[in-house]
Amino acid sequence: MTSAGARGGVLGLLVAGVLLCGCVGLWGLDGTCPCEGDLPEGSGASPVESAGGPCDPGMNGCGPGGILSDLVPECPLGIVCFTEACNHHDVCYGTCGNSRTECDERFYADLCAACAERYPNGGLEAELCAGLAYIYWQAVARLGESFFESAQVDMCACVAAQGTARLSDGWVPAKAPFVDRDDDLLPDNWELAVGCDPSNCADAGLDFDGDGLSNLHEYLHGTDPYAPDSDGDGVPDGRVSTPDRRSP
Predict the structure, then answer these.
(1) 36 or 233: which carries more pLDDT confidence?
(2) Quick check: 104 and 86 in contact, CB under 8 A?
(3) How far is the C-alpha of 75 from the C-alpha of 133, rounded, in Å?
């Protein structure tokens, strides 16, 4: 598996609803967040290019390939684009000998940097952007271990390295930048507004309107969780190019 497919696969699991209650352990989020302090050196979301050649880790933005390619927004809610941060993460996971913890920590820093660049003066959209950055980072922090190991095995074998990188636990504690009592990555205020239960983490994976998008999908895309065709174009939300295609 290429590193692009690996990280995309992690986010694919997230948006497919393979999350949370009974699926993934819940952690205490009581640490610090790079959004709240200095970013690691070299963490700015600057353009990155693939090296090319047979051992190229590859990049594919924020989405997995195949049928899920439109389900992970490159530009969630249309307010910021995380493509370059995702590309950095692809290359980091697919570079033989890298540390998973460092890759994931830099990914979060890059996401935060994209928000800071987009909203240098703060405000409500900056706060919303920070929440989206947290959600994307948590997808790889919670579910990325097997994908990282697969990418490392493939890439290290390609360059004929001796052994593969051993990773640490991969968990970088942080405090969510929004209230999320059930730790399902949906802000409580959104859950209350649409009739979800902010104390029940299972509803993040539910699909109230049967359009193929879970409630977490609906939040990230800015679609209506009770309207299967939010834009009224006659095609269910889960079967169209998603709203994040618009420029922020």
Answers:
(1) 233
(2) no
(3) 11
Contacts of 126 (CB under 8 A, 6+ apart): 115, 116, 118, 119
| Amino acid sitting at position 94 | G
Identify the pLDDT of residue 116: 95
Q: Is 179 left (phi over 0), alpha (psi -120 to 50) or beta?
A: beta
74 torsion bin: left (phi>0), alpha (psi -120 to 50), beta (else): alpha
Task: Could you list the beta-strand ranges (E) of the chain.
Answer: none
Cα–Cα distance measured from residue 85 to residue 101, given in angstroms and rounded to the nearest whole number: 15
**Residue 29: exposure state from Cβ atoms within 10 A (0-12, 13-18, ≥19):** middle
- pLDDT, tens digit, 9 for 90 and up, residues 190-246: 999 999 999 988 888 889 998 888 888 889 888 999 999 888 888 888 775 444 433
CA atoms within 13 A on the CB side of 148: 24
The mean pLDDT of the chain is: 73
Which whole number is the average pLDDT over 104-132? 94
Predicted local distance difference test score (pLDDT) of residue 120: 94
Residue type, 62: C
In the block, tokens 């994209």 appear at 114
Q: Are 191 and 11 in contact (CB under 8 A)?
A: no
Q: Is the pTM value of this prediction over 0.90?
A: no
> What DSSP assignment string belongs to 190-226?
HHHHHT--TT-GGGGG--TT-SS--HHHHHHHT--TT
